[in-house]
């Protein structure tokens, strides 16, 4: 059952099944969902990853999901992800915000704005 692993509170989805399950759980919870579209070869992704993990520890009312674009190409394509990292913010299945790039301040302010 290594389909999704939790880093702090960041849930990494490694299969389409895990992705769909976590997305459904997040939508059902009515919480803000922050999806981190990342890649193992992406330098800025590696820089922002510990920041995201810290935010996830503090923001327990937010669901954090991580998707490797090379692992789940169809998911990245479905969400029109063209650059890494891309953070998509969902509320009840609807996109409420998007941050492209390892922009710590933008990420924090978007989480604060939409998790209230």
Automatic annotation (TrEMBL):
UniProt keyword annotation of Disulfide bond present: yes
Question: What is the superkingdom listed in this entry's lineage?
Answer: Eukaryota
Q: Where is the Thioredoxin domain?
A: 1-116
Pfam families from the entry?
A: Thioredoxin (PF00085)
Q: Listed GO cellular component terms?
A: cytoplasm
Q: Which InterPro entries match?
A: Thioredoxin, Thioredoxin-like_sf, Thioredoxin_CS, Thioredoxin_domain, Thioredoxin_H-type-like
Give this protein's Gene Ontology molecular function annotations.
oxidoreductase activity, acting on a sulfur group of donors, disulfide as acceptor; protein-disulfide reductase activity
Where is this gene product found?
Cytoplasm
Q: Which Gene3D superfamilies match?
A: Glutaredoxin
Q: Which CDD domains match?
A: TRX_family
Keywords in alphabetical order: Cytoplasm, Disulfide bond, Electron transport, Redox-active center, Transport
Question: NCBIfam families from the xrefs?
Answer: thioredoxin (TIGR01068)
Q: Which family does it belong to?
A: Belongs to the thioredoxin family. Plant H-type subfamily.
Protein name (database record):
Thioredoxin domain-containing protein
């Amino acid at each position: 059952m290594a389909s999704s692993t939790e880093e702090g509170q960041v849930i990494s989805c490694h299969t389409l099944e895990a992705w769909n399950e976590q997305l459904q759980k997040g939508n059902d919870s009515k919480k803000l969902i922050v999806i981190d579209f990342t890649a193992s070869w992406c330098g800025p992704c590696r820089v922002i990853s510990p920041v995201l993990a810290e935010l996830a520890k503090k923001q327990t009312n937010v669901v954090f999901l991580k998707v490797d674009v090379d692992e789940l190409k169809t998911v990245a394509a479905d969400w029109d992800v063209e650059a890494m990292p891309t953070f998509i913010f969902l509320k009840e299945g609807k996109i409420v915000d998007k941050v492209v790039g390892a922009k710590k301040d933008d990420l924090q302010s978007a989480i604060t704005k939409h998790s209230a």
